[in-house]
Amino acid sequence: QVQLEESGGGSVQAGGSLRLSCAASGYTYSSNCMGWFRQAPGKERERVAGISRGGDSTYYADSVKGRFTISKDNAKDTLYLEMNSLKPEDTAMYYCAAGRRWFLSGCIDINYWGQGAQVTVSS
């Protein structure tokens, strides 16, 4: 079992920045990748960013490239998402996830989810 707990969400004006953190605990070695997903009201959950187990490969959705940065601290078992130049369309619940497989489209075959952290960007 792996437990994921997000923190760092909040409200910010357009153009601002936020950093999300995801603390992982449990049998983290069972996951080969981690990622961030988001879901806005009335929309499907979408993949935002991903990082391979060793941290040498990353993936970003086109909508966040150049603005968001995913990173991890293996010693602390913590995943981060640095979000800059935030836009109102970035408003969503952000979920941390751990998955079994790393692919071209990022972290897939998700087997663990966090509870989510709300990010609200006002214009």
Specify Rg, calculated over alpha carbons: 13 Å
Helix share, percent: under 10%
Mean pLDDT across every amino acid position: 94
Tell me the number of helical segments per DSSP (H or I, 4 or more residues long).
0
Our estimate of the beta-strand percent is over 45%
Describe this structure in words.
Helix content is 0%, strand content 60%. The protein is built from no helices and eleven strands. It has strands at residues 2-7, 10-13, 18-26, 33-39, 46-52, 58-60, 68-73, 78-83, 92-103, 106-113, 117-122. The protein is globular, with a radius of gyration of 13 Å. Strands 2, 4, 5, 6, 9, 10 and 11 form a seven-stranded mixed beta sheet that branches. A four-stranded antiparallel beta sheet has the order 1-3-8-7, with no helix packed on it. By secondary structure, it is mostly beta strands. Strand 5 (46-52) and strand 6 (58-60) form a beta hairpin.
Notable features of this structure?
11 strands, 123 residues, seven-stranded mixed sheet, mainly beta, single chain, four-stranded antiparallel sheet, globular
Summarize the structure.
With 123 residues, the protein is mainly β.
Produce the secondary structure layout:
Layout: E1 2-7, E2 10-13, E3 18-26, E4 33-39, E5 46-52, E6 58-60, E7 68-73, E8 78-83, E9 92-103, E10 106-113, E11 117-122
Parallel strand pairs: 2-11
Antiparallel strand pairs: 1-3, 3-8, 4-5, 4-9, 5-6, 7-8, 9-10, 9-11
